[in-house]
Design a protein that fits this description.
Order of helices and strands: HEEH
Oligomer: single chain
Strand order of the largest sheet: 1-2
Distance between the termini: 138 Å
Number of strands: 2
Shape: elongated
Length: 164
């Protein structure tokens, strides 16, 4: 029988056994990170304040959603009386931890300003109105000045024409 060579197979390399001189170091459990009670306290303060920020953002988002529903005409069942709002707002605060100068902490609350966006928008609108009034007044002043010069030129031309 004739042997057919396998061309699709790669030749197997035979390795010579070598002596092992170093052993694999067994896995060691990682040393537990020792966190002091002070570090735990500071971490908890940060966590509370972060959650307070998230809660404040969620409250403001609730207000945006309620305002959107109030302005849409598609929700007459939600607003049975004309002019009635879907949500009422009272003073709201979130827990907050403050750090005192002596490195101690105070657990207190921080007021959530529900109407800050409206106040800022009203202030910006007033500033824009004032800028527009100033710009219009300046334009009117320039027109009056140019008109006065044109009237003076016409007056001098008429005087010269009438004398000759």
């Amino acid at each position: 029988m004739k042997k057919i060579p396998d061309t699709h197979k790669k030749p197997i390399l035979l390795l010579q056994p070598t002596s092992v001189t170093t052993a694999i170091v067994p896995l060691q459990p990682q040393e537990k990170k020792i966190i002091s009670e002070r570090e735990r306290l500071i971490a908890q303060v940060k966590r509370i304040n972060q959650m307070a920020g998230e809660l404040e953002a969620a409250i403001l988002e609730l207000k945006v959603i309620a305002n959107t529903l109030n302005t849409q005409k598609r929700y007459p069942l939600l607003i049975k009386e004309l002019g009635k709002h879907i949500c009422q707002y009272f003073a709201v605060s979130v827990p907050w931890v403050k750090r005192k100068p002596d490195e101690s902490f105070i657990l207190t609350t921080r007021k959530v300003d529900l109407f800050r966006a409206e106040r800022e928008a009203a202030l910006l609108a007033e500033q824009l109105r004032q800028q527009t009034k100033k710009r219009l007044a300046l334009q009117q002043h320039k027109k009056n000045k140019i008109g006065a010069k044109a009237d003076t030129k016409c007056l001098f031309k008429k005087v010269l024409v009438n004398k000759s």
